[in-house]
């Protein structure tokens, strides 16, 4: 049973709101969510390469950018053609093979609305944004709640820089992000039982943590559509569903947001969603993870191996459901 409350950041915006963001205003949804989850789909190993050449991307000249050596891996980088053909992007269907369908997303022109508890709401053009920040490449582990994992070179910039640009008020406690909405190209969005648009959120502390990355590229190129072009989030110590794709809106609020998966199944997917091998999903263990490509099983690490950097964020939150 889904009860949807109107959240403060959904209150009608000023004229500054770009049309495209609200063209397909989210319909009020009610309905059963039973059985809709992130059940792992077996045996969908990638065998075709749907990645399209990125030469016509207007930011191609910026790539590759130099890798920040501070971020190292304990495993091999996942093969590009494997990662490019095994994605979660429910806007384009619930299978992992959404790469081809995702190519119908037009990633230019693209702007990101910044609103809520900020000094002044504004819309930022993606190319102006990308050219105004310092891009770097980082190798991160990535762990889906379905117990598969990959290791990839992301290109991006610290979300902290975007937060600074947004000039949030001191009353802001959370950052809420939303994905585009366009059911005419995203067939998944015609399935009205999902609470579109895809929504995720972080605390201000999480959003401004050094590891929290706004991603514009992958494998040394502008990010391909299926990975969430032209701008997505990566929070490497949390389950993958927190890392929202194809962002069109970033709002600041003092109320904890309810995210897409939490709204669908709050007993399985909560707000914090930090990786922990000892806290099983209600329907499966989280003790180990299967690496895409090699199918190697690797023991999962607390906070996906980033505990030294992030555990302090949660020291005073021990009563919270930090790990689901
Ligand atoms: N908008 C949007 N963002 C999303 C998702 C989605 O379905 N829609 N899936 C999430 C999940 S469950 C995971 S595991 C990652 C997958 O990222 P990848 O396809 O780049 O590996 O994206 C996350 N971000
Ligand atoms: Mo996921």
Describe the structure.
The chain has 324 residues and is of the alpha+beta class. The protein has a single domain (62-313), classed as Oxidoreductase, molybdopterin-binding domain (Sulfite Oxidase, Chain A, domain 2, Alpha-Beta Complex). It contains eight helices and twelve strands. It has helices spanning 19-22, 80-83, 99-102, 126-132, 159-166, 204-207, 260-264, 307-310, and strands spanning 111-116, 122-125, 136-143, 148-158, 174-179, 199-203, 213-218, 221-222, 232-234, 247-253, 288-291, 297-299. The strands form two sheets. Strands 3, 4, 7, 8, 9, 11 and 12 form a seven-stranded mixed β-sheet that branches. β7 and β8 form a beta hairpin. The longest helix is centred in the middle third of the chain and has 8 residues, at 159-166. It is globular. The two termini are 19 Å apart. The model is unreliable at 1-52 (pLDDT under 50). The site of ligand MTE has 16 residues, from loops. The ligand Nc1nc2c(c(=O)[nH]1)N[C@H]1C(S)=C(S)[C@@H](COP(=O)(O)O)O[C@H]1N2 binds at residues 38, 87-91, 144, 179, 198, 227, 240-241, 243-246.
Question: In DSSP terms, counting alpha (H) and pi (I) runs of 4 or more, how many helices?
Answer: 8
Strand content: 15-25%
Q: Radius of gyration in whole Å, from Cα?
A: 18 Å
Number of strands: 12
The CATH homologous superfamily is named: Oxidoreductase, molybdopterin-binding domain
Structural class: alpha+beta
Shape: globular
Percent helix range: 10-25%
Query: Could you tell me which ligands this complex binds, including any ions or cofactors?
Result: the ligand Nc1nc2c(c(=O)[nH]1)N[C@H]1C(S)=C(S)[C@@H](COP(=O)(O)O)O[C@H]1N2, molybdenum atom
Order of helices and strands: HHHEEHEEHEEHEEEEHEEH
pLDDT < 50 runs, ≥5 residues? 1-52
| Mean pLDDT across every amino acid position | 87
Sheet with most strands? 7 strands, mixed
């Amino acid at each position: 049973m889904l009860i949807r409350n109107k959240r403060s950041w959904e209150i009608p915006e000023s004229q500054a709101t770009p049309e495209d963001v609200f063209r397909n205003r989210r319909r009020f949804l009610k309905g059963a969510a039973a059985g809709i989850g992130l059940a792992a789909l077996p045996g969908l190993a990638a065998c075709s390469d749907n990645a399209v050449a990125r030469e016509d991307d207007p930011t191609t000249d910026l790539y590759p950018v130099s890798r920040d050596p501070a971020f190292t891996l304990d495993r091999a980088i996942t093969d590009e053609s494997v990662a490019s053909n095994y994605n979660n992007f429910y806007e384009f269907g619930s299978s992992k093979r959404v790469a081809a369908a995702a190519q119908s997303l037009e990633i230019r022109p693209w702007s990101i609305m910044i609103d809520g508890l900020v000094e002044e709401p504004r819309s930022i053009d993606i190319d102006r944004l990308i050219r105004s920040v310092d891009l770097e490449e980082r190798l991160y582990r990535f762990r889906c709640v379905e117990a598969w994992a990959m290791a990839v070179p992301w290109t991006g910039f610290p979300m902290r820089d975007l937060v600074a640009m947004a000039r949030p008020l001191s009353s802001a406690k959370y950052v809420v992000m939303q994905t585009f909405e366009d059911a005419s190209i995203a067939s998944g969005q015609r399935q009205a039982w999902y609470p579109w648009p895809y929504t995720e959120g972080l605390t201000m502390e999480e959003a401004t943590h050094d590891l929290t990355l706004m991603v514009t590229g992958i494998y040394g190129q502008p990010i391909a559509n299926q990975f969430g072009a032209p701008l997505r989030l990566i929070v490497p110590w949390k389950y993958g569903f927190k890392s929202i794709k194809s962002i069109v809106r970033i709002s600041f609020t003092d109320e904890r947001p309810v995210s897409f998966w939490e709204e669908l199944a709050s007993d399985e997917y909560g707000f914090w969603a930090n990786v922990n091998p000892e806290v099983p999903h209600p329907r499966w263990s989280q003790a180990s993870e299967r690496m895409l490509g090699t199918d190697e099983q690797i023991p999962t690490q607390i906070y996906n191996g980033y505990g030294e950097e992030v555990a302090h964020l949660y020291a005073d939150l021990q009563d919270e459901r930090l790990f689901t």
